[in-house]
Amino acid sequence: MYHYDEECLKTFLEKQKQIYKENVAETLEEADEFLEDCMAIVVNSQKEIKAYFDEVGVDVQGMSLNDIENCDEVIKLPSGRYLVVEV
Fold it and tell me: Where does this protein have coiled-coil stretches (predicted)?
């Protein structure tokens, strides 16, 4: 059983080069393991991304919510949720 749902895993596999220079996973299993190792999170809104970044010490002061959504480590999922991958 996966820690992340299929939407997260498939979208991460498609968009991982947004974050990394080369693929870090090729299969759903590898993606799930990688995201778990990175302690990636899934959030429901831009405000939740900002709250998470504030919590972990990412400097987002002066950034709009749209700017935060467009950070490389944020992947928008088809359902409208966000996958945030620590780099």
Answer: 10-37
Within 8 A by CB and 6+ apart from 63, the residues are: none
Q: Is the pTM of this model over 0.85?
A: yes
Locus of tokens 């966000």: 82
Q: What is the pLDDT along the chain (87 residues), one digit of tens a residue?
A: 679 999 999 999 999 999 999 999 999 999 999 999 999 999 999 999 999 999 999 999 999 999 999 999 999 999 999 999 987
Structural domain including 54 reads: 6-84
How many domains does the chain contain in total? 1
Q: Is 42 helix (H, G, I), strand (E, B) or coil?
A: strand
Which pair of structure tokens corresponds to residue 1?
A: 């059983």
